[in-house]
């Protein structure tokens, strides 16, 4: 699904996003980077229609996203926490999201099992979230987002809570799922190494109120180590700028 972000801005008590514009073709793997608090989660929520923008608009295949839920079944979201229901098996957690789409019980179950298989959880369908590891819960959350077969998959630091090994494994898994399903992905991360390892388009946001500081096509033409260095320099500058512009104590 083609994604266009057009002059999107958001004001809460303070302006958080000034104006962000970028566009990506269907099937891109976009990584969104930027200093803490610059509005990455806010932007992701606006793109998913979970939060209205103060200015600008988001277009999915040319159609504006609205915050009225109309796009929910075309957009899958994976949050930083897995948000699984502890009293339901992994299978039922995944199957649950298919109910509003009108899928019959047998179909929900079959689809849930197919996606749990895809994320490497075959055999664990009947387990409760409390009985599997954090990495496995995060995989189940990814299966749940994929099960609705969304055109656009939004992921907000989904591996933030994982250890280094599991993080690497999950990065590879998400790359594989991305290749196999051809979905457009927007992935928020604070790890520059992670973004350079998995993204095809890297969007670096500036300090709050944010704009796009740099949009980089990660097609292998720039050497990875150099890209990591350049992005590290940029983010340090933006972190410093943001600290210099701290809003002060809450009145
Ligand atoms: N619902 C809200 N009401 C008021 N202010 C909010 C709300 N949500 C976010 N903010 C503010 O917007 C700013 C950006 O928040 P956001 O969570 O989007 O940043 P982020 O880039 O995702 O940060 P992090 O890297 O820590 O995840 C913060 O200053 C935050 O206080
Ligand atoms: Mg965030």
Bound molecules: adenosine-5'-triphosphate, magnesium ion
Structural class: alpha/beta
Give the strand order of the largest sheet, numbering strands 1, 2, ... along the chain: 5-4-1-2-10-9-3-8-7-6
CATH architecture: 3-Layer(aba) Sandwich
How many individual β-strands?
A: 10
User: How many helical elements?
Assistant: 7
Tell me the domain tally: 1
State the CATH superfamily name: P-loop containing nucleotide triphosphate hydrolases
Mean pLDDT: 90
Structural write-up:
The chain is of the alpha/beta class. The chain has a single domain (3-23, 34-218), classed as Rossmann fold. Helices cover 35% and strands 24% of the residues. The protein is built from seven helices and ten strands. Strands 5-4-1-2-10-9-3-8-7-6 form a ten-stranded mixed beta sheet, sandwiched between helices. α2 (90-96) packs across α3, α3 (105-118) crosses α4 (134-147) and α6 crosses α7. It starts with a strand and ends in a 7-residue tail after the last helix. The mean pLDDT is 90. The structure holds adenosine-5'-triphosphate and magnesium ion. Adenosine-5'-triphosphate is lined by residues 12, 16, 34, 36-42, 190.
Ordered list of secondary-structure elements with their pairings:
Elements: E1 3-11, E2 15-24, E3 29-33, H1 40-47, E4 55-60, E5 63-64, E6 75-78, H2 90-96, H3 105-118, H4 134-147, E7 152-156, H5 164-181, E8 184-188, H6 192-198, E9 201-205, E10 210-217, H7 224-244
Parallel strand pairs: 2-10, 3-8, 3-9, 6-7, 7-8
Antiparallel strand pairs: 1-2, 1-4, 4-5, 9-10
Helix pairs in contact: 2-3, 2-4, 3-4, 6-7
């Amino acid at each position: 699904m083609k994604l266009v972000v057009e002059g999107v801005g958001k004001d809460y008590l303070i302006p958080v996003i000034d104006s962000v514009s970028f566009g990506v073709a269907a099937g891109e793997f976009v990584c969104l980077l930027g200093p803490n608090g610059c509005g990455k989660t806010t932007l992701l929520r606006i793109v998913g229609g979970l939060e209205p923008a103060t200015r600008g608009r988001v277009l999915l295949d040319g159609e504006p996203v609205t915050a009225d839920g109309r796009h929910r079944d075309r957009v899958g979201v994976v949050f930083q926490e897995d948000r699984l229901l502890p009293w339901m098996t992994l299978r039922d957690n995944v199957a649950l999201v298919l109910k509003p789409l009108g899928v019959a019980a047998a179909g929900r179950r079959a689809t849930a099992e197919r996606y749990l298989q895809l994320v490497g959880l075959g055999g664990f369908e009947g387990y409760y979230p409390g009985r599997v590891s954090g990495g496995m819960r995060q995989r189940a959350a990814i299966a749940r987002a994929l099960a609705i077969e969304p055109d656009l998959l939004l992921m907000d630091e989904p591996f933030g809570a994982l250890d280094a090994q599991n993080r690497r494994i999950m990065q590879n898994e998400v790359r594989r799922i991305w290749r196999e399903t051809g979905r457009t992905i927007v992935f928020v991360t604070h790890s520059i190494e992670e973004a350079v390892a998995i993204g095809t388009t890297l969007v670096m946001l500036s300090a709050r109120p944010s704009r796009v500081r740099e949009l980089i096509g990660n097609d292998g033409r720039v050497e990875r180590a150099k890209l990591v260095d350049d992005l590290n320099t940029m983010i340090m500058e933006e972190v410093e700028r943001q600290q210099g512009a701290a809003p002060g104590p809450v009145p």
